[in-house]
Every structure is written in structure tokens, then in C-alpha cells.
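Design review, sub-item: ligand-bound model
Attendees: FS, YL, KQ
YL presented the inputs for the P-hydroxybenzoic acid complex:
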Amino acid sequence: MDTQVGIVGAGPAGLLLAHLLGREGIDCVVLEARSREYVEHRVRAGVLEQGTVDVLTRTGVADRLQREGMVHRGIELRFGGEGHRVALSDLAGGRAITVYGQQEVVKDLIAARLDAGGPLEFEAPATEIDAERGVVRYGDGGSDELRCAIVAGCDGFHGVARAAVPADALTVYEREYPFAWLGILARAAPSSEELIYTHHERGFALHSMRSADVTRNYRQVAPGEDIEAWPDERIWEELQTRMALADGSFALNEGEVFEKGIAPMRSFVAEPMRHGRLVLAGDAAHIVPATGAKGLNLAVADVRVLARALSAYFAHGDESGLDTYSERCLRRVWRVQHFSWWMTAMLHRLTGDAFEARLQRSQLDYVVRSRAAATTLAENYVGLELEDV
Ligand code: FAD
Ligand code: PHB
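KQ shared the predicted structure:
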């Protein structure tokens, strides 16, 4: 054996797994296809559940997160030209979310891994994984080989790990949505203290943020949309239209757009999450549409279960945690799939059908009027405890 755990991918899943295993004295090697610069600047998620913040804090990688992260105790649902606050913390036992960029989490975990002296190889793409033998081929044309007791496939949706499971051993559930998100980062102060999820007849819009002077906004676009067709002025104009309040009291602060991109919306689950010596974690095994703000948090939840299982396995040869890993994770995965699908279906312009739009408005009305319905949203949004799913 070259290492106990070969970790493919240095996204949040792979890096957190390396961090948790390193603390238990378990030897692992992380292989990442891209450069450090690239992974540290890839703009993605921004909402951390309470449980995600807790695990980073407990394990000593949250100094900057505690200083710079913005704790939010509510969100706004905006529809029919009116805003309605959902008091997340009041409804969900005091729990909150923290707004802190995914790439900041990635930077903090890379720094921790390198400080601990752990192997982390950039520009070392895995090309082939043997799930039965625990062998990873990587590097230029697969010239290098890593032999592992366990391989953790944390290489995201487009990685090689999932493909290493024979097709007849894997069941895939998938849904593609007929829309995508165009996201921008802009140098502008947030226009609201909390995130605003907007349902509008022209389509969904979301106002989020990264700091006191950087905002993150998203709007629903057609899936094949060309980013070049959207000059900045047009993006702002459309966001302003969708997010306007009927009494004219709201305007988004505008500023220089320094990042923009289009992300597809997809639901995807591959079951089971283990085959032989290979385990899958994070986006390698499942994808959720971003409306629930869950992908990163789900990756973290998988890794918490996996780290516990691996620690029992290497300490006492106890395989029970590994045997139940997939089943334990999939309970949460499907809860989160449902929540993400539900938020997506409630907030986007779907087919443009008037009946559908009426149902959405009824659902939104119910969520902001009924404490029971708002609690359902709140406890899923802040994240259910591992024990509760
Ligand atoms: P990834 O972050 O994809 O990491 C996989 C890593 O593996 C990458 O670094 C990749 O380069 C590497 N890799 C790939 N192939 C190979 C290979 N062959 N060999 C070696 N390495 C390889 N989630 C939330 O929780 N909250 C949000 O608010 C949110 N917003 C989002 C907004 C957008 C626009 C997008 C696109 C996503 C959002 N998500 C959100 C989802 C979240 O970003 C992902 O779920 C998260 O990145 C999953 O982490 P991961 O480590 O599993 O995968
Ligand atoms: C973000 O800030 O990037 C963000 C916030 C909420 C979401 C998705 C993305 O649901």
C-alpha cells in the first residue's frame, strides 16, 4: 500500500476529508486535476449551514470564517412585488446560516493541509480507478500509480470516480431543468441585510452577497443562453425589474461586474455510494439545483459520515461504518434532493403555464402565512442534524 486513503479531488469534499483523517492520524494523499490558483478562485457556493460551520470550527479551520463570515438569521421571499421575511433562527431552534464563499473554505482547507505537511498534489488528474483493487492511475497519461486501502472519489460531477463503478452496479436518478442560472459578482454593497429569493413572472432572481462591498446576484436564464448576449447593463436591468417592490422602495445597488457565468440546474443521484474499495462523496455522487443552497453542505455531510467510518475501520478493522456509509448518506441526500427540487419548483418560471403560476403563488403565500410551512422551509434551509435524517 502507498497510502491508507487515496483522495481524488481537492474541492470541499476531498479537502475536508483529508483534514478530518489527518487529525485521526490516518495517512492520505490528495490528487487534484487543476492548479492551486484555479481551485482557489473557482466561484461557487456561498451559504454554509450551521452544521458545516460547526465542523470547521470544531476542527480548527474556521478562524477566518469566524471573522469574515456573515451570520444570517432569516431570508426574504419576494413575490407579487412584496417581501416576506422567513425568520430562520426563530423557526429552527436558534440555528443560523453563514454567508462565506466556497472558495474561501477551499483556501482555508488547503492552507491547513499544507501546514500539516500532508501530501496534496495539484495538476495531478486521476485518469483511471480500479475500484476492486484500490488503485488510482494519475498524472500525464496515467503514468503514476497510487495503491490505497480505500479510494475516496471526491472529484465532482465531471470526475472519473463514478465511472469506475460498473454500470450494472450503479443506479442513476436524474432530472434536468429547462433553465439555468446566470450569476454575477459585483463591487457593490449588499442592498439588503439578508438574501432575497424572488419569484417573478419573468423568472427567478436571487440577491446574495460575499462581504460589505461585494454582492452576488443570480437570475434565471434559458439553459443554452450565451453569456456574451448579456452585457452588464442588460443583466442589471433585468435584475432590477424582477426584484422591484410594488411601492418602488427597492433598488439593487449596482457596481463593476468582475465575474460572471452560467450554471445548469440539475438533480442527480447515483446509488450506492460505495463499490469495493471505492467510496463516492459530494458532487461525484449527487447534484442538487442551487435554489436550496445545499450542494457544498451535502458534500460536507457525506464526508463527516465517511471520516467516522474510516476512523473505525483503520483503528479496529471495524467495517460496519463503511458498510452503512451509502445508506446513511442517501437518507440525507434524498431529503435535500426533495427540498432543493421543492424550492426550485416554487420559485422559478417553469413552463409559463398560468395554472402552474397560480399554484406557485398559493404555495408561496402558504409558506409565509403558515408557521408550520415556514418551519419546514427553515429547518431544511439551515440544515437538519445528522441524527435527524
Ligand atoms: P467540487 O467542488 O466539484 O470538487 C471536485 C474537485 O475534483 C475539483 O477541484 C476538480 O478540479 C477535481 N477533479 C475533477 N476531476 C478530477 C480528476 N480526474 N482527478 C483529480 N481531480 C479531479 N452549494 C451550496 O451548498 N450552497 C450554495 O450556495 C451553492 N451555490 C452554488 C452556486 C453555483 C453557481 C454552483 C455551480 C454550485 C453551487 N453549489 C452550492 C454547489 C457546490 O458548489 C458543490 O456542491 C460543491 O462544490 C461540491 O463539492 P465537491 O468537493 O463534492 O466537488
Ligand atoms: C450564493 O451566495 O452563491 C448562493 C446563495 C444562495 C443560493 C445559491 C447560491 O441558494
